[in-house]
Amino acid sequence: MQVVERSATRLVLRERPWLESFVGALFVVVGIVFLVQENDGPRWLLLLFVAAGAAVLVFFAKVVTCVFDRGSNQFVREARGLVGSTRRSASLTDITRVRVDRRSGSKGPTYQVELQLASGKPIPLPTGSSSGLEPKQRTARMIREFLGMPADPDADGEGPTFGEAMSILLGKDGDRIGAADETR
Q: Three-state DSSP class for 176?
């Protein structure tokens, strides 16, 4: 997330989905170019290509803006796309923790900055998770500093996932660590 404004009373962060926008626009443009040209290929496939690009632009290419405002004691997260927007807000005093959530995937871990509310509900700051732990940690630290929260080393996504913790506890072969060795 990019810092748009940082003052004593306001912190404004924004994430622009440049990759999703580029891919969606590329699909639409390439599909339209091939549709306009006279070719013998299946037109339904090109229409599907354009529709896929349009879907990416409409559903995934959303600009997310997060405003932390001490003057109004409000946090506002707004996601704007080509077709509509969503808005969530909370009192700054309801934010109990700022953490980096780590998720395991087939291509490696991804990370997402989340605000934990007093109600227990998390508010993810960007629309999705991505690789790159360091930028997420910097963002979480900046928000904590703005809110006057203490450093939280357990909240920065560095700990093992549940699956990793279980494999550590059970060992590679499924044997429990610390189990008595029967050969002694």
A: coil
**47: which residues sit within 8 A by CB, 6+ positions away?**
31, 35
Q: What pLDDT is recorded for position 174?
A: 46
**3-class DSSP state for residue 89?**
strand
Phi-psi region of 67 (alpha: psi -120 to 50; beta: other; left: phi over 0): beta
Task: Give me the amino acid identity at 8.
Answer: A
pTM: 0.66
Residue 78, pLDDT score: 93
The β-bridge relationship of strands 2-6 and 122-124 is unpaired
Parallel, antiparallel or unpaired: strands 2-6 and 10-15: antiparallel
Question: What pLDDT, in 10s, does the model give residues 4-32?
Answer: 889 999 999 988 776 777 788 888 888 88
Interatomic CA distance for residues 112 and 96, integer angstroms? 17
Q: Give the pair of three-digit tokens for residue 35.
A: 């549709």
Compute the distance between CA of residue 79 and CA of residue 61 in angstroms, rounded to an integer. 10
Q: What are the structural domains of the chain?
A: 2-17+62-170 (2.30.29), 23-59 (no CATH)
Distance CA 85, CA 64 (A): 9
DSSP summary character for residue 92: G
